[in-house]
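Batch 3, record 17
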Amino acid sequence: MMTSTAIRIAELVPAVPPVPVAEVVEATSHWWAGFILWFPLISLVLCGLCAAFRVRSKLPAWITIGSLACSFVLTILLGNAEDVPERILLFEWISMEWLGGSFVANFALYIDSLTILWMSFVTGLGTLIALYASEYMEPDVGKGYTRFFSGVSIFLFAMGCLVMGDNLLMLYLGWEGVGFASYWLIGYYYRRPEAVAAAKKAFIVNRIGDLGLALAVYLIWATFGTVQYNELMTIIQSGDFSEVYEGWSVKAIPYLLMLAAFGKSAQLPLYVWLPDAMEGPTPVSALIHAATMVTAGIYLIARMYPFFLLEPASLHLVAWVGGLTALLAATIGMAQYDIKRIFAYSTVSQLGFMFLGLGVLTTYGAAYHVFTHAFFKAVLFLTAGAVMHGFAGQLDLRKLSGLRRMKGWRIVAWTMFVGCICLAGFPFTSGYFSKDAILAEAFVTQGPGFQVLGWLAIFTAFLTAYYTFRVWCRVCAGPVHYEPGDELHDDDHHDDHHDDHHDDHHGEHGFHPHAPRFAINFVLVVISVGALLAAVPYFMPNEVEGIKGGWVADMVHGSSAASGIPGHPDHPGSLSDSAHGDGHAHHGTILGMDPHSAMYYISGVVGGVGLLLAFWLHLWRRQDADRLRSWLLSRAWIRWLPVAMENKWYVDEVYHALVRAPLWLLGHVFHAFDRYIVDGLLVDGTSRLPRLLGRWFQPLQNGLLQSYAVTMAGGAVLIVLMMVLMMQFFQGGAVQ
Amino acid sequence: MSWLLILLPLAGVVAVVLSPARMAKIVAMLTTLVVFGVSIAAAVGFDGWGKGTWGLTGSFDWLSRYGIEIQVGADSVSLVLVLLTTFLMPLAVLGSFTSVRERLREYYGWLLGLEAAMLGVFLAKDLVLFYVCFEFTLVPMFFIIAIYGGANRAKASVKFMIYTFTGSLITLAAFLWLAWSASQAADGAWTFSIAALTEHAVSGLDATQQGWLLLALLIGFGVKVPIFPVHTWLPLAHTEAPTAGSVILAGVLLKLGTYGLYRFMLPMCPEAVVTWAPLIAVLAIIGILYGALICWVQTDVKKLVAYSSVSHLGFCILGLFALNPMGLEGSILYMVNHGLSTGALFFLIGMMYERYHTRDMNAVGGLAGRMPIWACFMVFFVLASVGLPGLNGFVSEFLCLIAAFAAGDMGAYPGVLGPWYAAIAALGMIFAAMYLLIMVGRIVFGPEKLPPGTPDEELLPQDLSVREITVLVPLAVFCIVLGVQPWIVIDGTSAAVADTLAVYEPILGQAKSAVQGALVGGAP
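Prediction for the assembled complex:
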């Protein structure tokens, strides 16, 4: 029963996508949509002018906040106005035509519901986080302040290109653009070697992913002759295409896209840059490295989903990589002490869940988790930032305690609590619903070992609940106790100003944390309310009968992310796998129950247990945590586990040994080869030949008459010989 | 108009030599600006944009008995490179105002002479003028390096001179043989017109003869580009040359090689090119990766940028030998873009050197705090060089790679390369990010580090002057313009490129439409 009725990916392959890509309108009425992109660009230019005129006020922040807010408003207006996908041409970029072919990649927008969904939280959170940053970055006013906000503007522009672009090349532009913005902002504290190294690492690791994207673009163009979404989708839908390159081109495309997605969204094996990216200012971590940019990989796969459906094995790989990354990152996150790093690893882990969702055919689940995660992870980072801001850079959770009892810190403590329950997937929070949508689907969809993967993911959810509340219990609950950090969060590039800050920050004696003020608190409250409200769409009615998930699901299903998802060919309306209302008979089961109902209980219980464990070890009996650690460390057979987890499974070291060191060595070998063999031996050696020849003939000119006579005779003989030979040669030639 | 372009700089040489030393730079500046203005006027008046035709022609009877008639003129491709040259020259002059302090008249004289020679190469319509100018570029450059260069200038200049001269001698032999062979075919009527000789080479030579011709051209132009095993003069010459010398060397002189390949090798020996293109592409790919990895371990910033040219020009060659419109357009764009971004990087390094008298990344670093404007430009041009989309480098790199990718038996294009060539070459994108960002990470960012012996705080050199910013801004503007509106070059040269490729159609078959090609198989 189960096998015959469950959705089997393998069956999808030949199936022509049942739902036509909606008519694409070449719109002129929404010409103003371009301003969603132009506003951040205008802000960038204005920030540049601020820098040129050495503005020493908060003006750059207000410019950025204002323009991002305008972008947000336009996005919402566009979302209300848009009902069919439309293309809006801004200007021509690369457009070539020649006899028998063309390559067109214009600066054009492709607006469909997926675009709107993504842009709404990108611009919305962008505005709020810029507002937060206006206070957070205050100590840098007149110094790096402008640089920071121009970086945010670049980021929003690039992210807009990535999400709204009408073709793969524009996506690529945004893709590398956000990578650059991330480089720019991670390296914000450019005096600090770790920040510079982290920025470099982020850019280079991302470039490996970009290589995959570039090759995918080449391959897609070589196979389909276009890189524009609507044309690609039409061709795929028609089924009128064939493999080139001996039949591997269409099969290879999803794997290359996957490489790109894994780079940008920090999955195995390319996740290593994201934890290091926490060197950037915290608003950046919240905006770029948690809420928005890192979800670009999910967007890419969702946008190009039909390509993945053509090669189902690729989706299996996506699911497994996502599931394993989620587990690995969760185990590392458990054993870290730096709050931001824990949140960073939890981001990697949650992104893994999203990929798992994509892999098990619930693009809705993945997108919904992106949406909810954007809110609650932003809250978590922003609270961590507030703590860092107030405690002179202190982020070690062993050195902070009892925040919720301190005056002025209650909002931070409780908004962090909201973030934590959502992340932990506590029942009836947004994270609970979005995660369940993914977990349940792992049991519904059939694939290699998906059942195992589902249980692994449930175990990961348990770990998530544990490490999330480990942070909260340590930092916000318990007795009041704190040690200031050893640095100001801004002391890096103007050492000469130490004295100015002495009063409010430094000194062992009389350190008093300065609590966040209005902008930070306001943003924290707004976003955490958003994080709670993000659960609401789950209960909202859908346009399509029998689907859960409200407008989020509708938006995902109205785009290319859904097209081709099978379901009921005769029932094009409910095209989605996740179009399973309650009680449909065609599902797999867990423990004899419908996976979706079962998951409500399982993940609720798992989350609760993890939470209780965290409360026990980190609030009620903190000494037990230390005892547990020393117990583990003293047993030889288990000792490796905590050590490996604390050392992040040595992945960085392995990469260093396997990739960087050999290349470095090769570079030196090539350099030596170039210097001594190519240049030294071949070039300089050749150039010495004339001199050597000269030396060789030198003895002939020795001034002795007899030897001249001998030489002359010899020369004459030589000439005669040559003449004879040449005559024979030419006669032979003439005969022929 | 073409004559004017070549003769004006020569007149400038006379003026510079006659003027007092302190006026030399002003005269040179004015001359290069006038030449730039004339070239703009020529470009505006040129009616060959988007067409394959020649314009701005002129001729001068020299030794008509031997068919030596000096012909000048430009098609859209050469005009693009003429504009690159005339655009870079005023900047090079302006950039040398403070770095060159002695023997000024001589210096600016050589620079202007160099400009005349370079313009002569791009504007030549016959082999004699081409070759004379091609060789004559060596002389001013030799003196610029030998007199105004760094510590190792003697060795660098001699090596530069002899290496490239030897290479081009072989090309000269090939040209002479070609002309002789053409005259044999035409009953002793000599001609050195490039168009006539090209026609003869295509129709009159068999595959083997074309192969030899290709080899000879490859040696001469390959040294100039430079292609992998014959590149070792370049790091030395670039490193030792004065700033303006490096800029011109990277910006224009290297393009003489790629222009030569485009103008002579592709049209003249199609049969041989089709046979040997994979090999040349492999050399280009080796150059890309090998050069990039060597860059990675450099400590001398200037040498790093010099080796990066070896790596970058590999993409340009790869695009050329993809033998399809995208590749050729990408390659032409690459010539321009590399001139802009690498030229700018040399300027920036020169500005750093003027202040701290070192190019060693171990000795100097973290200059962003001290020179924020310089740091901004540095990051900007590094990104242009890395190929960040939206800036110029991306478009050309992308076109070269996608062209190589699609050119193959089974690809969208008939051609002799294929996906693997592009895939391996594309690794260069990662390496480029590695070495350039490491350079930025060390000299621009990180803790501040100044070389020993740097004067006191008050005496320390300041951020960029207005003059230096004036040098960099035009380059930056064009990096953005060509990154966002590359059609300026692409549309202008498309017809000329199509004409060049027409000769390959009978050999490779017609380009099939990618979509049609894909549709042939029907539904799976």
